[in-house]
Amino acid sequence: MNQKPKQNSWQEVVSLLHYNEKTESYKKLTVSIAEDGGVMLSLSEGKKGDKDSTVKVNFSLNRQELIYLAKELELLFMKGKGGKT
User: Fold this and answer.
1) Each residue of 54-72: pLDDT tens digit?
2) pLDDT confidence of 51, banded at 50, 70, 90?
3) CA-CA distance, 30 to 37, in Å (whole number)?
4) Residue 38: CA atoms inside 13 Å, Cβ hemisphere, count?
5) Which of 7, 15, 64 is nearest to 41 (CA)?
6) Listing from the earlier edge strand, what are the strands of the sheet with 39-47?
């Protein structure tokens, strides 16, 4: 039998959007989680209404990398270098 491998279903859990009204350009960061626990960071940027200008980068993290990233971010904020808006 020829069975296709099961594809993961991704659920977006975080979405951040920066939009410049003057240039109509945007930058978007999303974090998605797969059924198997995998994590995907997606970065995209482009101009409103111009699909050809869109650039997208997907970055998949394993558990070890995700824990490392979380700890580094936690340390950054504990040192008082983050969190200011």
Assistant:
1) 999 999 998 899 899 999 9
2) confident
3) 16
4) 13
5) 15
6) 10-20, 25-34, 39-47, 50-61
